[in-house]
Specification:
Length: 421
């Protein structure tokens, strides 16, 4: 399927720009990130119910979206971007062909508020396909991709980037992306090389530097290091950006956006707050399954297995029989199969709470882990409640294993010295 370009280019001045566009969608502060196969409609509905103010779609492949009707219908249908429950919405594409990207964007133009170009994906598939962060070596192509949308779409174009090791190059890169016509800049505070075991912590200092150096009217979103609710305001205050985006933090705890608290309020002290900020797995799973029943799109069905593994991650390590049930989900599984798992989880948690000792332990405690240079801390959360996932740093689990970033770095340096010897 092809979509012809308009006979005459649209005037960029005829549509809302930068801050005016941001204000038109309500000045959102809490944003669900674009994630491969994971920020689909059912998940966006759940996240919005729990406080998200703006959502991105999963990363869509522009060429496949245009040329393969099956892929397009599976990933984006009439319910996506519906005014009743899925706005504001930004649709993200990965691409390396300006005209193909424009054709894809034209297919969603009336069902979203903006189109985003993925310049941040660091995975090997992006390297092989020459998209995402692997375009950051080709600034001319980036300009053409963004500017073609800026000139020819009736809605704004935005972009999500990663940083360079150099502050100066990162600033020049950001300015280049904005000069091409991007109306909002999302900055993931990690370099392209920071992935997998080497993911480490995002550098908020770089994001703050961009905020200080770019014009005040530039709308900037920050991405990275959002694990707990208080990290949202901590990031806003430290970087000075307009809004904060969460990917993994939202996937493991969709209630991460449920309310705004300052970063000084690190541990909820009353049961009501604990229940709101870190929902029990049986409660959050029931809410998700009920939404899934009313969201027939193929993308939402495909994503269900991954969502269950993330929502139930700490729980499944204790109840391996249910882990096996989740692992058995396949393309032929139905919503009834997923509902059965939800009922089984409810049964287990109900039995747990028949024990008075469990009830006494149903609270959130600050660990004895002292704050490190990131300003973050680790909390002890009962395994029957949703909680963040801590990526390994240099082979060590940060905070979750009671190890600080500084300790991990020190251990890494020792290992390097031992290899030299």
């Amino acid at each position: 399927m092809t979509v012809s370009k308009p006979a005459a280019a649209l005037s960029p001045a005829a549509k809302l720009s930068g801050r005016a566009f941001y204000e038109s969608i309500g000045c959102p502060k809490k944003i669900v990130a674009p994630m491969v196969d994971q920020s689909e409609l059912a998940w966006r509905k759940l996240s919005r119910r729990l406080g998200a103010e703006l959502c991105y779609t999963p990363m869509l492949h522009a060429r496949l979206f245009v040329t393969q009707e099956k892929y397009r219908n599976a990933m984006f249908d009439a319910l996506d971007g519906h005014s009743s429950n899925d706005r504001p919405l930004i649709v993200q594409f990965c691409a390396n062909e300006p005209d193909m990207l424009l054709q894809a964007a034209k297919l969603v133009e009336t069902q979203c508020d903006a189109v985003d170009l993925n310049l941040g994906c660091p995975q090997n598939i992006a390297r092989r396909g020459h998209y995402g962060s692997y375009l950051q070596d080709d600034w001319d192509l980036i300009y053409k991709l963004i500017n073609n949308l800026h000139v020819n779409l009736s809605i704004p174009v935005t972009a999500k980037i990663r940083i360079f090791p150099s502050l100066e190059k990162t600033l020049a890169y950001a300015r280049h992306v904005l000069s091409a016509g991007a109306q909002i800049l999302t900055v993931h505070g990690r370099t392209r090389e920071m992935k997998g075991q080497q993911t480490g912590l995002a550098d908020w200092k770089v994001i703050r530097y961009l905020r200080e150096q770019l014009p005040p009217e530039t709308v900037i979103f920050a991405n990275g290091n959002i694990l707990y609710h208080e990290d949202i305001n901590r990031c806003l205050e430290f970087t000075g950006v307009d809004a904060v985006m969460s990917a993994e933090g939202n996937l493991y705890n969709p209630a991460i956006f449920v309310k705004s608290i300052t970063y000084k309020e690190t541990v909820p002290t009353d049961y009501e707050s604990v229940d709101e900020l870190f929902p029990r797995v049986d409660h959050i799973l029931r809410d998700y399954v009920e939404i899934l029943k009313d969201t027939p799109g193929e993308a939402s069905q495909i994503a269900a297995k991954s969502h269950l593994f993330r929502l139930l991650r700490p729980f499944l390590s204790q109840h391996t029989d249910i882990r096996s049930q989740v692992a058995a989900i396949n393309k032929d599984s139905t919503i009834d199969d997923i509902s059965m798992i939800a009922r089984n989880v409810e049964t287990v948690v109900k039995k747990l709470f028949e024990d008075d000792e469990v009830r006494a332990k149903d609270t959130v405690r600050r660990s004895d882990q002292s704050l490190d240079q990131s300003g973050a801390e680790y909390k002890d959360i009962p395994y029957w409640r949703v909680q963040p996932y801590f990526r390994p740093v240099n082979g060590q689990i940060l905070f979750g294993g009671k190890r600080s970033l500084d300790e991990c770095k020190e251990e890494n340096e020792k290992q390097k010295e031992q290899k030299k010897e």
